[in-house]
Structures are given as structure tokens and as C-alpha cells.
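Regression test case RT-17, inverse folding.

Input:
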């Protein structure tokens, strides 16, 4: 009996392996084989040529695709990204791109790059069927194209489409032909852009680029330009969608994460897309039930619509507080005309200004009046990266040589009053001259590090020349000793503290030093609301309402030169109590804002950062 059971298990494993290999072969062929149909001219902008050249180097481009790895990769991406859209949000996106019964015509072409369970595709088909009732001779086959690379998912959605068509009177043959024509089992990011869409809709996958399985990542990097193959998958889908929608007036409507509009990794893509597309609509739906099921979605989403050839149009912008409010914002007219043309309008190195026209106008006014921090002698530097904190961060009773332990500060050590409580130390493996310490001179430190040697040796920063115990960054004695302002890189509102010197800042903190502004005065004005003002507009958002206050954000902060301030204004800045919170009047006077409307906008914006922080704090 045992032998028979083992034999049955072996047979099942053999059949599963054959199925897996067969499925891998078919998927690999679908991904690698070009589609021999009429080619669409490549869209502008172009960072890589249509034949797949890129700037990632030949290593990733020439790596052969392993079919079994590919199947595992598809499964991993599908498991991570299978979050589908609710019907309310779907209807709004379809309306915004003009895929309505009244908006469809015989030349309309709709693309769904990652159709999943059909959340977008089925309602889009239903609208096309309704349109066809008044156009019975229209050829529907070329009017829709959808992609899905997960074989099981595509089988399910094809059955749903077939049933929908049969329910609306199509015979079995027609329903089958349309279904097969519309939906392709293929990886959209590797597909040939042979379909000129007038509308693109969907909820593209969100996955950090570093988490994409290596086989797929290599294939994508060989096909996509550097500007698109970074950060997260969502950006790659947005870019690829522009290649499938090359004609003037074509629209791309996605429910997707908005980090690419704010984060540094999207800078080059934003600059290129700004030259060819208008940001027609951007409505934040943070925290709203726009997705199906109870699965928690960490990335903050927005309804975003791009339109080719209209880069200077006004942007319909809003922050929806409910699904009803989302519908109201989506149907409201854009305001501002050329006075507030688009949230694309920002400095070349900054993120998009995701704010209402009044706040965008306020930042425009500040930008005209005040330079960025670097121009007024304020340097922004990330704290020290260690590479395996377990080996280097020590408790008070660490036991290593006293002169090898330096006080260490993390985000959690900063308090709201502008101070900090330091309770940990960092092991210093560097000499005062900048060389790596000879561990024989510090036996206690050597013994401590030896206990973590195996993991330390595996780090990418190790060259193999006896530097296995180095930290990623050197610890510079002058930087440790220097007074500096510390800003937590992640917080619901800016957490700013002052270090009189002597502490090592972790790489979760950003350090500000100044050659023009006195540090205490700089600390006071930053705490008065300047960092929160810019953070409200340009900071990326994360789960729980957390904002990123990294170097990319801080370098967009504007500040007049200390020497340009009147004596009276200097005294007011110096007298501001950093523990008292925001002072919108002081901030407005610092920037020379005379307009009552601007001062009111400033006050309301700063108040909203406090309200949001309090609300989130109560929620948790």
C-alpha cells in the first residue's frame, strides 16, 4: 500500500511538472514572439527605441528567459498585485476618458493593459454593446484590446465575457470570436504596440521595482527605457500605455498609486510625459473603498487621466472624502484656465504639485520670491547608512571600548518639542583620518563584530579585501561633531530637532547645516510651518498617512537669505518658540505675502496638516 501511494504521488508530481513546463513554454513564446500586425508609429517622448534598446546595459538585456522562472515570476507578481477595482471607481474612470455610450464611435479603441478579473473590461464591453444596439453593422472586433499574463485569470475573464455577450443576444460563434479577439494572454510590458488606443483604462499593478522577480525584471529592462523601468511597476505601465495611445487626444485613465508623480524615481518620466501629455484629472482617493475585498492596500491611490497633446490644460484636481464626493469631483468643471494651467507646472527637479489651484498659486508665488535651500547656504544630507544595524547599533551597556561607541539618533528618538532622547550608540569602525580601523587595536569591538561576521561579509558594500566589518558610509568626525538640524525622513507631519553636536544620525534622518542662516533661527522657521507647507504638496504619501520628508522633498523648500531679512523680522524669527508649533503669520511675513487670499490659503494649508495628523492619530 505504501508503495502504491508513493507511486501515485510520483505520478502526480510528474504530471504537474509536465503541465508547468508546457505552460511555461506557451507563456514564454507569447512573451517573446512579436505580433505580426500593422505597427503604430512610436509615441513621443522616447527614451529608448521601439526595438527594445535601453540604457540598462547589455547584462540584463541579453539574459535568456528561463521558462520555469517565468511561471514562478508571473505567479509572484499576480499574487502581490491582484487587487481589483470596485464598480463605482470603474464607472468614473470610464466616464472621464470618454468611453460612454454617447462618446463611443466607430473609430474608438479601448485598451485594458492588465484586465485581471474584468473589473474594467466587462463594464467597458457592456457600454460597447449598448452603443452597438444603435450601430448594428459596426465591427466590434478591433475596438477592444485587453492583456492579462496569468493563464488562470484569463480563462476566467474570457468565460465572463462570453457569458455577457451571449446574454446580450450574440450567438455562440460570434461570442467566442469576439472574446478571443479582445483578450490576449500576454505580458503587456513586453507587447508590441500594434494597437492605437483612443482610450486606455485600468488599475495597473503596483509593485516596487526591486521586488519584481529577476527574470521578469531583466526582460522589462531590456524592453523599456530607463526612465520607466524603475521605482515601481505602475510607472512602467503608464509609460507603456503612452506607446499604445500615440494619437492626439488619446486618454489614459488609471486608478493607480500616485508616488510616481512625487518621488525622485519618476523625475525623468514626468519631464518627458509633461512634454507630450496634459494631466487632465488627478483625484486622490486615499483611504476610500475603491478596491474590492478586504485586502489592505498600502499605496495611496488616485484617479489619474493623461491626455496626449494637451500639456497646458487645466487639471481637474481634488481629494475625495467619499465615493459620492469622488463622483462630484469627477463631474465638476476644471477651474483656473491658464492662470493655474496644470500640476505638471513645477521645477525640473521637483515633483508634481498635487494641490488645489490656490495652493499651487501660493507655492508659485513663494518660488518667485525665495530661492531653494542650497542657494541660501543650507546643505541637506542623509544620515549614516550602516548596513546591518544589528551589528553596529549598541545598547548603553554595550561593553566595547568607550572611544569606539558614539551616541546614535534614530527617528524614534526625536520629540515634537524639537529635542531628542538618545539611548543607543553606534560602533565606530573608522579612524579619524577616514581609514578602516585595525580591529587588533579594539579587541572588545572585534569580538562583537566577529559574532555577526557571516552576515556582514554578505553585504554588497564589502569588497573582499578585509573590509567585511565596514559600515556603508564612513563616520566623518567633523559631521558628527557639528551642530545640525535633524528631520525625520518619514512622519505624518514634520518632526524637527536640533543636535548641538556629537551624535551620529541614522539614515532615516536628514541633517541640515548652514553657512548663512543661524541654526537656531533656521530651526525656528522650519518648525513654524515651512517644511509642513511644502510637504503637504510635494511629499509622497504612505500607509497610515505617513509622508516622506527626504532630500528630494527638502531640497524643494524655499527660503530667503538671512541677510535679506530686516532686523525686525530677524528678531521675530529668533524669538519664535520652536515648541509652540506653526506660526502662519510669521511664515507669510517671511515670504512677503501681502495678499489676504494667499495668507488665508497658507493658514488653511498648515491647519490641514495638523488636522490630518490628529485624525490619523485618533484612528490608530
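Golden output:
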Amino acid at each position: 500500500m505504501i508503495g502504491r501511494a508513493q507511486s501515485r504521488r510520483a505520478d502526480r508530481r510528474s504530471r504537474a511538472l509536465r503541465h508547468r513546463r508546457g505552460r511555461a513554454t506557451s507563456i514564454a513564446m507569447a512573451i517573446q514572439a512579436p505580433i505580426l500586425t500593422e505597427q503604430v508609429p512610436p509615441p513621443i517622448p522616447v527614451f529608448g527605441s521601439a526595438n527594445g534598446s535601453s540604457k540598462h546595459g547589455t547584462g540584463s538585456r541579453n539574459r535568456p528567459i528561463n521558462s520555469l522562472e517565468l511561471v514562478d515570476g508571473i505567479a509572484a507578481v499576480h499574487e502581490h498585485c491582484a487587487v481589483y477595482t470596485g464598480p463605482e471607481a470603474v464607472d468614473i474612470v470610464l466616464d472621464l476618458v470618454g468611453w460612454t455610450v454617447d462618446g463611443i464611435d466607430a473609430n474608438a479603441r479601448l485598451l485594458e493593459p492588465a484586465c485581471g478579473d474584468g473589473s474594467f473590461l466587462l463594464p467597458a464591453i457592456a457600454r460597447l454593446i449598448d452603443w452597438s444596439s444603435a450601430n448594428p453593422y459596426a465591427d466590434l472586433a478591433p475596438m477592444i484590446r485587453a492583456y492579462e499574463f496569468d493563464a488562470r485569470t484569463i480563462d476566467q475573464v474570457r468565460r465572463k465575457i462570453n457569458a455577457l455577450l451571449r446574454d446580450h443576444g450574440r450567438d455562440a460563434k460570434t461570442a467566442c470570436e469576439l472574446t478571443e479577439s479582445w483578450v490576449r494572454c500576454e505580458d503587456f510590458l513586453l507587447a508590441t504596440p500594434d494597437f492605437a488606443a483612443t482610450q486606455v483604462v485600468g488599475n495597473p499593478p503596483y509593485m516596487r521595482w526591486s521586488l519584481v522577480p529577476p527574470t521578469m525584471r531583466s526582460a522589462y529592462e531590456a524592453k523599456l527605457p530607463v526612465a520607466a523601468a524603475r521605482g515601481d511597476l505602475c510607472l512602467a505601465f503608464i509609460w507603456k500605455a503612452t506607446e499604445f495611445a500615440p494619437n492626439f487626444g488619446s486618454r489614459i485613465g488609471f486608478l493607480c498609486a500616485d508616488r510616481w508623480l512625487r518621488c525622485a524615481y519618476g523625475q525623468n518620466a514626468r519631464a518627458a510625459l509633461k512634454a507630450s501629455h496634459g494631466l487632465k484629472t488627478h483625484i486622490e482617493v486615499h483611504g476610500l473603498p475603491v478596491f474590492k475585498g478586504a485586502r489592505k492596500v498600502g499605496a495611496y491611490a488616485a484617479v489619474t487621466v493623461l491626455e496626449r497633446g494637451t500639456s497646458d490644460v487645466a487639471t481637474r484636481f481634488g481629494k475625495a472624502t467619499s465615493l459620492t464626493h469622488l463622483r462630484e469631483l469627477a463631474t465638476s468643471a476644471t477651474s483656473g484656465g491658464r492662470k493655474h494651467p496644470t500640476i505638471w507646472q513645477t521645477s525640473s527637479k521637483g515633483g508634481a504639485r498635487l494641490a488645489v489651484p490656490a495652493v499651487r498659486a501660493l507655492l508659485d508665488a513663494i518660488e518667485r520670491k525665495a530661492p531653494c535651500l542650497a542657494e541660501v547656504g543650507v546643505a541637506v544630507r542623509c544620515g549614516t547608512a550602516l548596513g546591518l544595524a544589528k551589528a553596529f547599533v549598541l545598547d548603553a551597556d554595550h561593553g566595547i571600548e568607550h572611544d569606539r561607541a558614539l551616541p546614535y539618533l534614530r527617528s524614534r528618538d526625536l520629540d515634537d518639542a524639537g529635542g531628542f532622547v538618545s539611548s543607543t550608540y553606534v560602533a565606530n569602525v573608522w579612524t579619524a583620518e577616514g581609514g578602516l580601523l585595525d580591529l587588533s587595536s579594539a579587541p572588545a569591538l572585534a569580538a562583537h563584530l566577529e559574532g555577526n561576521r557571516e552576515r556582514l561579509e554578505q553585504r554588497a558594500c564589502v569588497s573582499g579585501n578585509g573590509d567585511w566589518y565596514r559600515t556603508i558610509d564612513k563616520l566623518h568626525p567633523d559631521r558628527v561633531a557639528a551642530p545640525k538640524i535633524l528631520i525625520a525622513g518619514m512622519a505624518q507631519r514634520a518632526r524637527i530637532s536640533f543636535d548641538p553636536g556629537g551624535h551620529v544620525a541614522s539614515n532615516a534622518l536628514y541633517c541640515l547645516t548652514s553657512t548663512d542662516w543661524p541654526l537656531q533661527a533656521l530651526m525656528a522657521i522650519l518648525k513654524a510651518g515651512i517644511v509642513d507647507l511644502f510637504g503637504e504638496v510635494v511629499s509622497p504619501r504612505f500607509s497610515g498617512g505617513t509622508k516622506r520628508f527626504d532630500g528630494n522633498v527638502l531640497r524643494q523648500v524655499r527660503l530667503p537669505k538671512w541677510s535679506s531679512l530686516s532686523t525686525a523680522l530677524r528678531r521675530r524669527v529668533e524669538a519664535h518658540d520652536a515648541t509652540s508649533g506653526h506660526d502662519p503669520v510669521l511664515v507669510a511675513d517671511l515670504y512677503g505675502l501681502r495678499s489676504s487670499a494667499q495668507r488665508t490659503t497658507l493658514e488653511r494649508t498648515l491647519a490641514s496638516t495638523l488636522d490630518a495628523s490628529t485624525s490619523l492619530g485618533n484612528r490608530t
